[in-house]
Amino acid sequence: MSDDESYCEDVEMSTDRSSAVLKAVRFGAAALVGQCPHLLLLALFATTWTPLLAQDESPRVLELREEIESVQSAIARVELEIDELAADYPPAFELEREQATLLRLAEPYGLRDMEIRVASGADPRAGAGPGLLALNRLVVAARGGLDSIGFFFERVAGPLRPAYVETARLESDGEDSVRFESIIILPTWSGGGLEALRAEAQRASEDPIEADDAAERLLLETLNTLRSEYDALSVALGISSEVDDLAERSITLMLPLERLTKELDEDALALSQVRLGDELTLKGVALGARARDRLVEGLAAVGLMAETLEWRQGDTCWEFSAVTRMPGSLQRREDDVVFGSGLLSDTIEGVCTSEAGAPVVEIGGRGTEEAAGEDFLIRSRDIDSADLFRVLHHALGVSFVVGADVAGRVSVTIDSSSSFDDLREADLLIGTGPLHLVSRVGDSAADVVPPADGWTGPPADITLRRTPGHDLLCLLQGALGVDIRVPGALPAVSVYASGAELDAIVEAVVVAAEHEIDRSREPWVVSASGQGGSAVDPCEVSSDYLVRDWLGAAAALDSLGAEDLELKAMTRIDGARTAYAYGPAPGLLVLEVGAPLYGGQVTAVSDEGVDIELTSGELRKLSW
Asked: How far is Cα 462 from Cα 466, in angstroms, rounded to an integer?
């Protein structure tokens, strides 16, 4: 017999001829010290006799009353703990009850299209042996902002009942929205609950006091077992030892991603997919040398240690896949709230692939290289047709509006003996100036814009490539101080203008977008040729153009390295040479001597290419 068992027998024997008060006190004391927990019920039974002593005011009796009240309080505390346990761990898993709870938790955060279903697969503790704590896994999917998802995860792990976010997968689902799919673990009792335990224990004895004692003892043992399994849950699930509490891990699960989003918000980076769990896995693209370095710096800044970081170069950018180790416990700060989807972008698909186009058309000036002695040469190779007119505009100061139908790629050599008519070889028609409308040969649009003396609007300088026509008119109507109405979305056109009247640009944009405009009264009304229909403010037409464009961060030369550039055109005008290159973002970059690059600068531009000197002293050359 153990010492504890001997002690408990001594206590019971010593109470045989004791008063009811002494029975209650001695039983309660033995139970409270933890050696004889089954005596709690006997103590409670014994205290039912104590009202007989209620009139006794002797010091000893008063002392015994206080001890009795203490025992009763202890019993009440145990009963309360058991009741709380029953609330925390429902006796059996019920899908409808859990679905209703999760929907109620998600409601304040505006999550949409929520789906909740039982996850397939075995108990994550498989092989750990039987236990009283059953782990039920649910798949929860919904749409919402990054901040809403983070707060929902925190509320899931809140005080209402134990629930833990095991893993989550996030992908962009459009502007300012993220779709997530997560696995949430909900612990329940594997048995039948409190009443079933009491009934089972009470059936083992005919003596009511012994039955109650056995039931209470079983409940306490169950309580301790469940608590032990609860405390070991993070270990059973394979959670990092750096995180002591699984609920705390759920609460801070989204924080590293939210902080990374804020850290890299202004950089030319976008995420296509995020997986959260024991590790944080990121997939996306980085546009330019600076963005690649910033990804590494940003991960370190928020405490994410990259275990693997793989890069693959695409046509115009670098794709990456990073597996990082989640940091230990984190504390939410006041500046941790992230509104929107941040780095997650649904425009990432295909961004690392060059724009498709028709086969390259080769065009040579009449004099070609023989005319180079006059020090006028414009040469391009495999360049987008719209970008060719960006080169002509920059080199010659001529203004162009390029129509929506102008597509394909060209290689062009133009010298002092050339004219715009030579571009007919590429099926391109150039209208009369000074604002030249560019269209396909055979279109009637090229000569629509009247001469300069027909316009009175203020002059403006505009350089915009392949921009939706309604977005252009939204900007121009504000500058002109007139109201314009459009029938809806208009095709994208390009404007490269210097000193051109704004009303002339409006007319050219409308014609280039294959529409017509009535300026005889205000508002000016744009319509398809010969058609009426509803007209709306162009600023109200939905468009991604005016939304934050993460590609725009890649347009600056000082964010790009030599390896990010592809030489596309070169001009020599009166001895001054300029080169033009494609980078990660659509459109041309101008390379002149002294132009800063990330980690270097342009030191020379020649007919053969561009020389770049790195800060390390190494020389790089972009060859023609």
From this structure: 13
